[in-house]
């Protein structure tokens, strides 16, 4: 592989500079993406391997990032699970048959990736061929809790009333559902690896709605089981948001790399996680809207907190925001490479 700096950092091996890739690096802040989006629905883009391949490659060509991440969505397995998903205009994902009780849970089907998400696996194979070893390719999945929350709430939520209601009121049903989703997550990630992904990330975007005790009881066992089920030797990034107050519990779920958001200092987070693990993060995505001087100051502060220690992967604390200037994103990647060059 021509550039394996990202994979080396995942394994905490020496690198010539800090690798950088960005969550949602293939997306709506890029004109190339929007030109395609104007002709296709989001789901059609995900389900058309040629389009997913092209969108995946756009930021690799434009930004000089150290890894590609397959263009997809964490909700792609839902259709194979028997969940009716649509992306409503200006509303985001909507679940038309949300989980509400035992019969709904029994009806959830454990997917067969080669049949149910064949288009994603084909896109991965196409991207691998096009990359020709230029940079590694990352696959990904939603974490069991985040996927469960989506299909219970029926979409986005502020208070997670239905999700927590099932957890607190019907814990036996909650655990039954989570067992199914954990197996789905394991199959989904391993299928991506078989298709060619060289690393995978688990997104627990909604875990921060929970307190530490609820996370430990209702989430931790399943995230841990999903991570342990990933093919050995393939780096796993365990990323969650709003969990900075209980990273000591999050780290128990495992992963070669723990991703942290911008609400916690990187040096403090690494102390909690332990320096025997790699860490990913953690610039506030809004910083990319500011003056370049301020962005550079904040980037340098994060690199200084990492202190050149083995195992730091630079990323945002969450995904790139729509409207972010592309030139600022490119500048960030260049800053990370320049400021972190060993011996500089």
How many β-strand runs? 9
Helix content: 40-55%
Mean pLDDT over all positions: 96
Secondary-structure element order, N to C? HHHHEHEEHHHEHHHEHEHEHEHEH
- Based on helices, strands and strand pairing, what is the structural class? alpha/beta
Count up the domains.
Answer: 1
Radius of gyration: 19 Å
CATH architecture: Alpha-Beta Barrel
Shape: globular
Describe the structure.
It is a single chain. The protein has helices at 5-10, 31-37, 42-47, 49-63, 78-81, 102-107, 113-116, 118-131, 144-153, 161-169, 171-195, 212-228, 247-250, 266-273, 292-306, 326-340, and strands at residues 68-69, 85-88, 92-95, 137-142, 199-204, 236-240, 257-259, 278-280, 312-313. With 344 residues, the chain is an alpha/beta fold. The chain has a single domain, classed as TIM Barrel (Alpha-Beta Barrel), CATH 3.20.20.210. The strands form two sheets. It has a seven-stranded parallel beta sheet. A hairpin with a 3-residue loop joins strand 2 (85-88) and strand 3 (92-95). Helix 9 crosses helix 11, helix 11 (171-195) runs parallel beside helix 12 and helix 15 packs parallel to helix 16 (326-340). The radius of gyration is 19 Å and the shape is globular. 47% of the residues are buried.
């Amino acid at each position: 592989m021509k550039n394996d700096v990202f994979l080396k950092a995942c394994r905490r091996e020496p690198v010539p500079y800090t690798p950088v890739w960005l969550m949602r690096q293939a997306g709506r802040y890029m004109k190339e993406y929007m030109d395609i989006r104007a002709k296709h629905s989001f789901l059609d883009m995900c389900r058309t391997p040629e389009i997913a391949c092209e969108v995946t490659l756009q930021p690799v060509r434009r930004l000089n990032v150290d890894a590609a991440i397959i263009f997809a969505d964490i909700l792609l397995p839902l259709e194979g699970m028997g969940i009716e998903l649509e992306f409503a205009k200006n509303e985001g994902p909507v679940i038309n048959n949300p989980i509400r009780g035992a019969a709904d849970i029994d009806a959830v089907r454990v997917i067969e990736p080669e049949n149910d998400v064949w288009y994603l696996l084909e896109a991965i194979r196409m991207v691998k061929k096009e990359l020709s070893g230029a940079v590694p390719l990352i696959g990904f999945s939603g974490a069991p809790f985040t996927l469960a929350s989506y299909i219970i709430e029926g979409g986005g939520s502020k208070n997670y009333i239905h999700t927590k209601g099932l957890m607190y009121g019907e814990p036996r049903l909650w655990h039954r559902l989570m067992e199914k989703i954990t197996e789905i997550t394991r199959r989904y990630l391993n299928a991506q690896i078989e298709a060619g992904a060289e690393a995978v990330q688990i997104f627990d975007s909604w875990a921060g709605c929970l307190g530490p005790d609820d996370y430990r009881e209702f989430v931790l066992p399943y995230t841990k089981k999903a991570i342990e089920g990933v093919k050995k030797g393939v780096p796993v990034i365990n990323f969650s948001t709003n969990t900075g107050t209980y990273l000591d519990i999050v780290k128990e779920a495992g992963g070669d790399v723990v991703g942290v958001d911008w609400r916690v200092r990187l040096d403090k987070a690494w102390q909690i996680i332990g320096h025997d693990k790699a860490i990913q993060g953690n610039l506030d995505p809004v910083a990319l809207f500011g003056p370049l001087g301020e962005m550079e100051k904040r980037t340098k502060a994060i690199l200084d907190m990492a202190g050149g220690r083995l195992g730091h992967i630079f990323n945002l604390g969450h995904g790139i925001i729509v409207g972010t200037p592309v030139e600022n994103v490119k500048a960030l990647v260049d800053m990370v490479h320049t400021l972190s060059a060993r011996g500089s």
